[in-house]
Specification:
By secondary structure, this protein is α+β, with helices and mostly antiparallel strands. It has four helices and six strands; from the N terminus they run αββαβαβββα. Helix 1 packs parallel to helix 4.
């Protein structure tokens, strides 16, 4: 089987596809379950399932993924979590995001690759019956190498991330597919 070519457009399309799947699950189930998918260098996808999703299991998964990363074409992490969109709320945060009155629910898709980490995000509200209202906007950005989370920089630090202005050129052409 031929080796997968690492290029920014492929990783953007992969992230968009995963975000669409996550948002479809949000519509159907009312939530997005945590998922980890390994993409081999030949393009085969393998899920990794966690029995429980908590800080300890995520830390253990992170350690394992760092060992596996050099042998993978990409690693995709899909999750739902509280987030803050308001800069003032972020600056004044004094405790967990879940306790902030300005919190929003968000869906996150991270595509870790030899080119860096692409993060797609979408925040959403719930209706009067607590059903999620599908987001109409998905944002995407290549993350800085110094980000400090469990799943950032899974691949070698020696690989140069794609410059953020490059992703905007690629993403602007494809973002309409995810948001419609």
């Amino acid at each position: 089987m031929p080796k997968m070519q690492a290029n920014p457009d492929f990783f953007v399309r992969l992230g968009e596809g995963m975000m669409t799947m996550a948002l479809n699950n949000l519509d159907r189930d009312g939530y997005v379950a945590f998922a980890c998918l390994l993409l081999s260098k030949q393009g085969e996808m393998t899920p990794i399932l966690l029995e429980t999703v908590n800080a300890q299991s995520k830390a253990c998964l992170s350690d394992m993924l760092r060992m596996l990363a050099p042998h993978c074409g990409a690693i995709v992490i899909i999750s739902e979590a509280w987030t803050l969109n308001d800069a003032q709320a972020i600056r004044s945060l004094n405790g967990p995001v879940a306790q902030s009155s300005k919190r929003k629910e968000g869906v996150f898709v991270q595509v870790g690759s030899p080119l860096g980490d692409l993060l797609l995000t979408a925040t959403f509200e719930r209706d009067a019956h607590s059903r999620p209202i599908r987001p109409t906007e998905v944002k995407a950005a290549w993350q800085p190498e110094n980000a400090n989370t469990n799943f950032q920089n899974l691949f070698s630090a020696s690989a140069s991330p794609v410059a953020s202005n490059d992703i905007h050129a690629v993403y602007s052409e494809t973002s309409r597919r995810v948001t419609h």
